[in-house]
Specification:
heterodimer, A: about 500 residues, alpha/beta, Alkaline Phosphatase, subunit A, nine-stranded mixed beta sheet, 17 strands, globular, B: about 950 residues, alpha+beta, seven-stranded antiparallel beta sheet, five-stranded antiparallel beta sheet, 35 helices, 18 strands
């Protein structure tokens, strides 16, 4: 059967929507979509696989049932947080050698700066933390996170091509530098469906920052050309946690029950008359909304958390909107079966006064990130929960603006940056990839700068992690083959990773 | 759960394979374009298509390539079809094609189909959408005289042994057609009149009223704005405000006026390149400026020059050609015959517009021009212009008619009006009266400007001169001096205050009516400033006619100046006073003008080259001229190689796609789904039309009707196909309505749902157009995302009537549109959307029941009901008639009464809660009404407005 021929499908007695609608639990719509695009063998294959226990995955067994993505928007400085370069101290103020920069495209902000490219070594102390490998150096800015070093898989060799925020953040979240594509979260919602009928499958939070310097966009959790029901639902710290959740003044839950009963009766009458199956689908959504009016406040009510919770997350977690509070929410969401949780923390774009800004930013996120990992571990959930921490790019070795030993700024840097993952089937307590002495380029194990090149299979040099590879790996851990999770639009089967991306097997248990 | 649904699937799949193979059993000619090409495209072209680079690799995208000798074998061997390599490989066990690890495999059915196709000769044909549409002979259906739409639809239905569904009842039909055409229900009186009218004309009268409604354009424009990604902000990074809403208003205005769609497109794409473009044509070019733009610190202008161009080219592809061109940006298209070079040739049409690549985060990201700031002004301006045109035509007839010579003779006499005998006093006290005659001495150099300066600081000069006229006529002179100056005409002081020339309060303009003969004028020249030179000028409008000798040779301004003369040979037209009025009106409107982004052309176009991998810094190869892809033939001869030429080609009969693509989208607005179910893709990877001949017939009809949108809509809404009941049928299997075996049925768009409630509650504001409005929105939605430097960081909601304007006017911040829009599937407008998704989510339910404006609308709606009657049943009738065009059935009535009873009881026990509910939103409650009753009814209205009776088109 060929899918270009609409009339040849007449024999299907249900609409695709109905069909997909029935599978809201467990199996996502994506694997079913294959049925209408692929061959019969694929269908058979898919069907038999779905019969096995794939732990929520759709193409292979998932090691992660859910993902919590801590997104550091603006581009955290790998120099000052994760990528320890003690030798740089001696090079303070010296010009970055041109062979290191190697014609790198530089943003318009520092391309013509009069002082050139003076090296700004990090002012922060790094301490070696034991892990399950050679150990990992962590900056004094992240004292709490350092405590869970044994759980982290720190990738020093992440890279991207985009050098400005809007394109870069759109790229890492949607696989394309220009707007229009579904976000990572939307792909997961499309692929995996939901495990909780009373909560959305994809939840996004914005954590407070003192320096909310860069913009976010709906598109980062939007669906692009995909149906909009896969978009991220904002869990807000101001007003209703979910938009329009609470009843207006003068309306009680009992009133709503009565209203919904009438609504159901009228809709069923409409269905009886017109037999449109969509009507029944909508009745269900009204009921789910009603349940959410209970389940979301219950979710947000942290009074049931014991003192040990706040010992772990800190008192800050009691203030809605803090990063710690978002992390606690994330754990509560994860417990309730929400598979796909993202926290955006803005303010990492430190062009000047990096120490002042990064100290504040680190303080915002450090304890919450640590507590989340520790909490998940304590509850036995870390093994099937993938936690990711990272931004859209790194920052330059050289200083932007005034340089002193105590103060400096750094421009955007796409060539290397650090991202960590934990849990969900990722190897705990390892580091992956390294950078050169300047933390400017990804390096070979011997420290020589490496310029990643795609090979014949479009695979980047081993030891590196392009952002498409990161996304491919994330999907893999969730039981999805990034090459097979497709959505057809304008005649093309689109993927999160476009035509790129390879799973980094070295990171996986 | 998982298990059952999977099992269910396999049954379905087996079902369709079974049916498909049964259709193949009989040997029938294989239709290459419809059946084979899509398979080749989808499974083979990735490696064996237009982008095949290796010379020895077979290409399957043309017959010539497929039969090429590959060293003893051919993919298709025309001399020995059985030996064709293509067939051998697809059935090969050891070395199959597609390879075993390929993502897309052939089904057995498809292999079989390919085999049969090769056996039948393996002949190629062009993809259907690249052939020009033609009107075929209409299908003949026994005993029935059908309009073409119905003939084609019924032909398919008959093949399934089915006919049309019965017609929907009249009230439902009225509701349906009103929503389809205007996005609102029929007005109660309109509905009443329609239902009472049993004549044949009843329906077409209703349709004509709807087509003529100003609401028509507001509704139809939405689809276009989605497609061309209209937004009120720049869309990237800071996402600052952008001044372009006059363009949006123009679209509405143009659609209301039924501007032919070919011109609609031409003006938008190239209005600036038309000879002497008018305001509309220039404002329309805002279309080209609709791409999201940025000024992020650190971005490289050349990069965004390229990105903006990509965006425009690809938008053109989606919106007008129905083709995804994005592949060809980086490499030759994998499926459709478009090379990378051709992509850049098409892009070259846009690479010569004059705006900077970065927007400077500016509201007036130039080029901009001044344009009307509300729809009313577009209309009034147009009326004024038409009125002027009318007067000019009348004048033309007169001036070029039998009286021509007489007019010229009179003009000559009037042109002789002369000012002479200029005299001036010395400086005198400003308060002094007219000096004696001997205080004046002769002055040379007037009319004109002389060295003499005016006297400031309470002093004055007196000027005297004579005017000599051959006939009674008006004349106007201008002199330097403040408005405190005085004019004495024939010994009488003018009492009306002097009027300054705009922009210069030291130039006064005086108009006088003079009789035949000589008259004396004295002017007291007063000045507030030093160093103002003495000057006096006058213009005699008649001189232009005398000099140019013919009315035809005059400019428009010169003609209007003559028409404004109260006396003279043209006075019989009685135009003088209306022209002044019209010009004043136009001046007032212009005073309200705002800026809008437009397009202009650089004198020297930028250099366009292929960009390797689509990277802005990797231009390669020769300089490219603007051109259309070869697939469409030659660029039309005699047309300029610019956007205008492009627009003319797009809307010419030589273009196979544009009319099909447009008519397909028009169809989907009427019938709920498009004939080509992938309206964004007509290329090889798109779906075939459900009714190919019908699509072509409509496409040609659009051209034949001179691109008349209202004509096309009229045809569609008058079809039997449209009028069918939308009840799902059991006698024909058509769940997705591919056969159009029933009327449309779907959840209506976000805007329609809001407008319906505004309308029902009588809150809907009639004023059309204007700056985007900001209704209620939960706090913090913009600030949570926005850059601190963004001027859209803070959402300041509007007050008063702006809260109640139609939803098309809701402010569109592209990185965060209004949540009640996006919850119901409105796109972000960062990219083109020609088909909205229609989802059902719990968040929609929350929005319908809890959002501030929904509650506000419900309670005003409730007041309307409470005021309409004392009787509950009567109130329910009004409510249902408004939202569903019918009265409630017994079950519904009982249910509603039960809810009302419950609510009355509940609010009687807690009046404060009733009052709290009635405080939601800005409009005050009607204090004369019982709050308990209104609150109860408000709860009912909320429920009904959230029910499918209101949400759906049916």
């Amino acid at each position: 059967m060929n899918d270009n021929h609409p009339l040849s499908e007449l024999d299907l007695s249900m609409t695709r929507r109905q069909l997909f609608g029935r599978t809201a639990l467990g199996l996502g719509t994506a694997s079913l979509a294959h049925l209408f695009q692929g061959s019969s063998s694929l269908i058979a294959n898919e069907a038999s696989k779905a019969g096995q226990d794939l732990n929520g995955g759709i193409h292979h067994k998932a090691t992660a049932k859910r993902v919590i993505y801590l997104f550091m928007s603006g581009g955290p400085s790998h120099h000052d947080l994760w990528d320890y370069k003690p030798k740089l101290k001696e090079k303070y103020g010296k010009q970055l050698p041109s062979n290191i920069r190697d014609g790198q495209r530089v943003t318009g902000m520092t391309a013509n700066q009069r002082q050139g490219f003076p090296i700004a070594p990090s002012k922060y102390k790094f301490t070696r933390q034991e892990n399950n490998d050679r150990g990992v150096y962590v900056s004094e800015l992240l004292p709490y996170t350092a405590k869970v070093a044994k759980e982290l898989c720190v990738v020093h060799s992440t890279f991207t091509e985009a050098i400005n925020h809007d394109p870069a953040i759109t790229y890492i979240q949607t696989g394309s530098q220009v707007p229009g594509r579904p976000s990572l979260g939307a792909w997961l919602s499309y692929g995996l469906g939901t495990m909780n009928e009373n909560l959305p499958s994809y939840v996004v939070m914005h954590a407070r920052s003192r320096f909310p310097e860069q913009s976010l966009f709906n598109r980062l959790w939007g669906t692009g050309f995909m149906p909009s029901d896969h978009q991220g639902i904002l869990l807000r710290s101001q007003g209703d946690p979910v938009l329009y959740l609470s009843n207006p003044k003068g309306v009680r839950s009992e009133d709503r029950r009565e209203q919904l009963d009438l609504l159901k009766m009228i809709n069923e009458g409409h269905h009886e008359k017109y037999q449109d199956p969509e009507v029944l689908a909508r009745i269900k959504q009204h009921e789910m909304a009603y349940r959410m009016q209970t389940s979301v406040p219950e979710l947000m009510n942290i009074k049931d958390e014991g003192p040990e919770t706040f010992k772990l997350y800190g008192e800050e977690a009691k203030q809605p909107g803090t990063f710690a509070a978002c992390c606690l929410n994330a754990r509560r969401l994860a417990e309730r079966g929400v598979r796909n949780i993202q926290i955006f923390h803005r303010g990492w774009d430190a062009h000047g006064n990096l120490p002042r800004e990064h100290e504040s930013q680190s303080k915002d996120v450090d304890r919450g990130s640590y507590a989340l990992i520790q909490d998940l571990k304590n509850r036995g959930m870390l093994e099937d929960t993938l936690v990711i921490w990272g931004g859209e790019f790194g920052r330059t070795t050289y200083c932007q603006g005034g340089l002193s030993k105590q103060n400096y700024g750094r421009d955007h840097h796409p060539r290397c940056f650090s991202v960590w993952m934990a849990g969900g089937g990722v190897k705990p307590g390892i580091t992956y990839g390294q950078t050169d002495d300047y933390a400017y380029n990804i390096a070979h194990p011997d420290g020589a700068p490496m310029f990643p090149q795609p090979n014949k299979e479009n695979k980047w040099t081993p030891g590196t992690m392009h952002i498409h590879d990161l996304n491919a790996t994330v999907l893999h851990l969730l039981g999805i083959d990034h090459r097979r999770l497709t959505y057809r639009y304008q005649g093309r089967d689109f993927r999160l990773t476009d035509i790129h991306g390879h799973v980094i097997q070295d990171l996986i248990l | 759960m998982k298990f059952t649904c999977v099992r269910h699937l396999s049954i379905l799949v087996l079902g369709c394979i079974y049916i498909s193979s049964s259709t193949l059993r009989a040997e029938r000619p294989i239709n290459f374009a419809q059946e084979v090409l899509p398979i080749l495209s989808d499974r083979c072209f990735v490696c064996h298509g237009p982008d095949t680079k290796k010379k020895n690799l077979v290409r399957l995208d043309s017959y010539e390539e497929a039969i090429r000798d590959l060293g003893g074998y051919r993919a298709i061997d025309p001399k020995n079809l059985g030996e064709s390599e293509l067939i051998a490989r697809i059935f090969s066990e050891d070395d199959p094609m597609p390879p075993k690890d390929a993502e897309r495999q052939l089904t057995e059915y498809e292999k079989d189909l390919l085999k049969k196709w090769v056996a039948q000769g393996g002949k190629y044909a062009r993809h259907w959408a690249y052939e020009l549409p033609k009107k075929q002979t209409l299908p003949k259906i026994q005993g029935q005289k059908l309009q073409p739409i119905d003939a084609y639809v019924l032909e398919q239905l008959n093949k399934q042994k089915a006919g049309f569904a019965p017609e929907a009842d009249r009230a439902t039909l009225a509701r349906r057609v009103a929503f389809v055409l205007t996005g609102l229900p029929p007005e109660p009186a309109q509905l009443e009149a329609f239902l009472k009218d049993n004549s044949d004309k009843a329906y077409s009268n209703l349709v004509e009223q709807l087509l003529a409604s100003p609401r028509f354009g507001e509704h139809q424009a939405r689809y276009w704005l989605d497609a061309i990604r209209y937004g009120d902000t720049h869309g990237l990074h800071l996402d600052n405000k952008r001044g372009i809403y006059p363009y949006r208003d123009w679209v509405i205005y143009a659609l209301n006026n039924n501007l032919p769609l070919d011109q609609f497109i031409e003006w938008q794409l190239a209005g600036d390149l038309l000879p002497n473009p008018n305001l509309q044509q220039r404002v329309a070019t805002g279309f080209v400026r609709m791409n999201p733009s940025t000024s992020e610190g650190g971005v490289i202008p050349a990069e965004f020059q390229a990105k903006n161009n990509f965006d425009r080219t690809e938008n053109l592809g989606t919106v007008l050609l129905g083709m995804s061109l994005i592949c060809a940006r980086c490499h030759t298209h994998k499926y459709d015959p478009i090379t990378q070079k051709e992509y850049y040739e098409l892009l070259a049409f846009f690479n010569s517009t004059s705006e900077r690549p970065l927007d400077g985060n500016s509201y007036t990201y130039g080029p901009v021009m001044k344009a009307p700031s509300r729809l009313q002004d577009w209309m009034e301006l147009n009326n004024a212009e038409q009125h002027l045109e009318y007067l000019l035509t009348q004048a033309h007839k007169l001036a070029e008619g039998p009286k021509q010579q007489k007019i010229l003779d009179e003009a000559k006499k009037r042109a002789q009006l002369k000012l002479h005998d200029f005299k001036l006093t010395q400086s005198v006290d400003g308060k002094a009266a007219l000096p004696q005659a001997d205080a004046f001495s002769q002055l040379k150099g007037l009319p004109g400007k002389v060295k003499q300066k005016l006297e400031p600081k309470g002093k004055a000069l007196w000027l005297s001169f004579k005017v000599k006229a051959a006939l009674k006529q008006s004349f106007t002179f201008t002199f330097s001096g403040s408005s405190k100056s005085e004019v004495i005409f024939s010994g009488i002081k003018l009492t009306q205050p002097l009027s300054s020339v705009p922009g210069n309060n030291h130039l006064q303009k005086v108009s006088l009516l003079v009789d035949k003969g000589e008259h004396e004028i004295q002017v007291k020249l007063v000045s507030d400033k030093k160093d103002v030179p003495l000057e006096l000028s006058f213009k005699n409008p008649w001189s232009s006619l005398v000099n140019k000798k013919s009315w035809l040779a005059l400019s428009k301004e010169e003609k209007l100046a003559l028409l404004k003369e109260e006396y003279g040979p043209l006075a019989e037209l009685k135009a003088h006073s209306s022209i002044s009025g019209l010009q004043q009106k136009m001046k007032d409107i212009e005073g309200r003008f705002t800026t809008t982004l437009i397009t202009t052309e650089l004198k020297k176009p930028r250099v366009t080259k292929v960009l390797q991998r689509g990277e802005y810094h990797l231009p390669v190869g020769d300089v490219l001229e603007p051109n259309i892809p070869k697939l469409f033939g030659e660029f039309p001869k005699g047309q300029p190689r610019n956007r205008l030429g492009l627009a003319r080609w797009l809307t010419s009969r030589e273009n196979p796609l544009v009319s099909r693509v447009l008519v397909n989208r028009i169809w989907s607005r009427v019938y709920g789904e498009a004939l080509v179910r992938t309206p964004e893709e007509f290329g090889l990877q798109g779906q075939h039309p459900t009714h190919p001949e019908l699509l072509d017939w409509l496409a040609v009809e659009l051209q034949d009707s001179k691109w008349n949108l209202k004509h096309m809509l009229r045809l569609m809404v008058h079809s039997k196909t449209f009028k069918q009941s939308s009840k799902f049928r059991t006698d024909v299997r058509d769940p997705e309505n591919l056969l159009y075996s029933r009327g449309p049925s779907y959840r209506m768009d976000a805007e329609v749902l809001r407008d319906l409630a505004l309308w029902g509650s009588e809150l809907l504001e009639a004023e059309a157009g204007g700056e985007g409005v900001k209704p209620y929105q939960p706090g913090g939605m913009w600030s949570a995302l926005s850059h601190p430097a963004s001027n859209t960081k803070k959402y300041v909601r509007d007050k008063g009537k702006k809260l109640y304007k139609r939803s098309i006017y809701v402010y569109w911040k592209r990185t965060s549109p209004h949540p009640m829009m996006t919850l119901f599937d409105a796109p972000s407008r960062e990219t083109s959307c020609v088909r909205r998704s229609r989802t059902n989510t719990p968040l929609q339910s929350l929005g319908l029941f809890n959002e501030t404006q929904r509650i506000e609308m419900s309670r005003k709606f409730a007041e309307r009901l409470v005021k309409s009657s004392k009787d509950n049943n009567e109130r329910l009738n009004v409510l249902f008639k408004l939202v569903a065009c019918r009265t409630p059935n017994d079950l519904e009535r009982a249910g509603c009464n039960k809810l009302i009873e419950f609510m009355i009881k509940r609010y009687s026990n807690s009046k404060e809660e009733a009052l709290a509910l009635l405080k939601t939103g800005e409009v005050p409650r009607d204090e004369k009404l019982d709050p308990v009753e209104v609150a109860a009814w408000s709860q009912l209205v909320t429920t009904i407005l959230a029910s499918d009776v209101a949400l759906l088109l049916y």
